[in-house]
């Protein structure tokens, strides 16, 4: 997911024990911030502007459907070669998270089951830049990705992962061994996903699942089922409801995406619950999630989200396409979501989203995980901002 503000606090250095109590890494033992040195930058190269029509269809090529429904002819993929000019990475495992790199023509893509993070760019094969040991036996693995708030200077990237013992946030730079930043988030048989974002003040937001224990979401003694907010030193960020706690909101069950608006005016989180899929607006100072901003009783599998000042886009992993909610001036939505790119010419199941700029999104597909993959799946794709559409009944 694009973190709307890139110029914010320095990289995070926080560790949490399994019981939920914070412990801070010894800054002299190789895990401290000062041991990190600037790394060679990933390529930032200009690329083609995405066309509004995009995406090879599930049968491979033909008359395809773009974000605004305009048809276009695209040859079918041949192996890992995809002729859709919007596709910038092919033949990967299902992508649970993506992060757009500065420059707009490249990004990072995270494979949930392998723990690999790959650099993707049009015309080049995906290049692994880090591999994190993960336990993907449940619904966990590598599920969250975010650039450092000061990425242009430090080249650091953060990932949310499931290990053999817990869920945690890791930090890495190209060529370095990934290091733990925040540990001890409970792990369970289900609901191990976690996602990352940066808020308007530059604090790092971490949304955690309830680890299969619904009661844990409202238990203040555990880090499960929470939105955590920490500063660049790993301490609870200034302005948290409890100055001594990283927990700012309770009540999550199985978060799939978190995003902030381009102007920093709002933050959102998606959550899959037994009764419905939900989209919540994260309200500072409100300790509980409260009433959902939108609810999907049909449970399409809400995952990554992308926030703009005029609309929210939500990816779904059980139903092809993207849900688009148009924001009203009152702060609510103008009507039912528009479902776009859900026809036979769409990209199939999309799990991850990030904002490239005010007109463009980077998305990642999960067609190998329950969809109808083409030969070039799973893919990282740059698409135009949906710009609403006509709501469907």
Automatic annotation (TrEMBL):
Pfam families: GSDH. InterPro entries: 6-blade_b-propeller_TolB-like, Glc/Sorbosone_DH. Residues 97-286 form the Glucose/Sorbosone dehydrogenase domain. Residues 369-380 have a biased composition (Basic and acidic residues). Keywords: Signal. Residues 29-81, 369-393 are annotated as: Disordered. Residues 1-24 form the signal peptide. This is PQQ-dependent sugar dehydrogenase. It comes from Kutzneria chonburiensis.
């Amino acid at each position: 997911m694009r973190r709307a503000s890139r110029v914010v606090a320095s990289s995070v250095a926080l560790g949490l024990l399994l019981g939920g109590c914070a412990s801070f890494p010894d800054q002299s033992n190789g895990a401290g911030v000062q041991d990190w040195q600037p790394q060679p930058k990933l390529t930032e190269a200009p690329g083609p502007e995405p066309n509004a029509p995009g995406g090879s269809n599930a049968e491979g090529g033909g008359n395809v459907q773009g974000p605004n429904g305009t048809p276009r002819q695209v040859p079918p993929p041949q192996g890992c070669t995809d002729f859709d000019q919007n596709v910038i990475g092919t033949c990967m495992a299902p992508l649970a998270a993506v992060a757009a790199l500065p420059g707009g023509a490249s990004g990072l893509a995270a494979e949930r089951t392998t723990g690999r993070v790959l650099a993707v760019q049009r015309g080049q094969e995906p290049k692994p830049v880090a591999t994190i040991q993960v336990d993907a036996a449940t619904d966990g693995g590598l599920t969250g990705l975010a650039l450092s708030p000061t990425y242009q200077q430090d080249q650091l990237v953060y990932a949310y992962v499931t290990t053999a013992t817990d869920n945690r946030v890791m930090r890495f730079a190209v060529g370095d061994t990934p290091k733990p930043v925040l540990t001890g988030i409970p792990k369970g048989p289900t609901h191990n996903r976690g996602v990352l974002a940066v808020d308007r003040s530059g604090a790092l937001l971490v949304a955690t699942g309830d680890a299969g224990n619904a009661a844990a979401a409202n238990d203040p003694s555990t880090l499960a089922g929470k939105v955590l907010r920490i500063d660049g030193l790993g301490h609870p960020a200034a302005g948290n409801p409890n100055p001594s706690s990283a927990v700012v909101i309770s009540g999550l069950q199985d978060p799939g995406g978190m995003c902030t608006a381009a102007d920093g005016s709002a933050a959102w989180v998606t959550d899959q619950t037994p009764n419905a899929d939900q989209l919540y607006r994260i309200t500072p100072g409100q300790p509980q999630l409260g009433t959902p901003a939108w609810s999907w009783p049909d449970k399409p599998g809400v995952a990554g989200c992308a926030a703009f000042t005029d609309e929210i886009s939500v990816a779904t992993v059980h139903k092809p396409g993207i849900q688009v909610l148009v924001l009203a001036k009152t702060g609510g939505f103008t009507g039912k979501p528009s479902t776009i790119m859900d026809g036979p010419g769409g990209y199939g199941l999309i799990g991850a989203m990030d904002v490239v700029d005010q007109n463009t999104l980077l998305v990642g597909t999960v067609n190998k995980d329950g969809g109808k993959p083409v030969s070039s799946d799973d893919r990282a794709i740059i698409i135009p901002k949906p710009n609403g559409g006509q709501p469907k009944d």
